[in-house]
Amino acid sequence: MDITKAKITKDNTIVATYTNENGDTVTIEGKNIVHKDLTAAFSELIPHLTILCEQKEADGKLLCDLPDGIYSKLEVSGYSMGGSDDSEGVTLTGKRFLMSKKVLNLNAPFTMFNNENEEYEYALDLYESVQKCSYEVEQYLFEKKWAVVQQELPFKEGEASDMPFEDINPDAVAEAVEGFENAGATFIINGEEAKPKKSRKSKKELVA
């Protein structure tokens, strides 16, 4: 299985496309917030986006000498793989946050990883960074590696806090637990949507 495309949405979820063992092209639209490790992996692509899109911060600088300020001014939101063998490469997609509070969309040119005609001197580092992203995307899709979102428990306003869990509604707790256990993802296989059935546990299993 190879991740061919991945994007972090504005809601901090993932939309990813991969080819499965049967050769089907599968797109999954996740509903859970991405883990910080996935966000960090995408951030490692920011220096490459800076150089490939010839941003001013890259003028006359090596990859390792780029200023830390690029991480607050630029963002990589996705990547798309292409080519094969010696022509395999990637296209990075991102944005630059302007002083006017507007956003400038950036699309880096297709960059090959291991081709003698590729002029990008940091192609190997780019390849390794993309592999880290693909690993974290796989963890999100298949290992349920998501960010843990804190759920608020229902307390009655103005009640004493000596025994804060005395009047919690068990049904509300069960509903919160169930929300964590269900992925709620939408699967698109070869262009056709297929929603997986959600497994529901009984209240006795949830409370136990």
Regions with little confidence, pLDDT below 50 for 5+ residues: 201-208
- Residue share in β-strands: 15-25%
From the spread of the alpha carbons, the general shape counts as globular
Average pLDDT metric: 84
Order of helices and strands: EEEHHHEEEEHHEEH
Secondary-structure content class: alpha+beta
Number of helices: 6
Ends apart, CA distance between termini: 37 Å
Please give the share of residues in helix: 25-40%
For the biggest sheet, the summary is: 9 strands, antiparallel
- The counted number of beta strands is 9
**Radius of gyration from CA coordinates:** 22 Å
Can you tell me about this structure?
The chain has 208 residues and is α+β, with helices and mostly antiparallel strands. It contains 6 helices and 9 strands. α1 (36-43) packs antiparallel against α4 (123-142). It is globular and about 55 Å long. The two termini are 37 Å apart. Mean pLDDT is 84; it is low at 201-208.
Topology:
Elements: E1 2-8, E2 14-19, E3 25-29, H1 36-43, H2 46-52, H3 70-73, E4 74-82, E5 89-97, E6 103-107, E7 111-112, H4 123-142, H5 170-181, E8 186-189, E9 192-194, H6 203-207
Antiparallel strand pairs: 1-2, 1-4, 2-3, 3-8, 4-5, 5-6, 5-7, 8-9
Helix pairs in contact: 1-4
Q: How is this structure best summarized?
A:
The protein has helices at 36-43, 46-52, 70-73, 123-142, 170-181, 203-207; strands spanning 2-8, 14-19, 25-29, 74-82, 89-97, 103-107, 111-112, 186-189, 192-194. By secondary structure, it is an alpha+beta fold.
Can you give keywords for this protein?
single chain, 208 residues, alpha+beta, 9-stranded antiparallel sheet, 6 helices, 9 strands, disordered C terminus
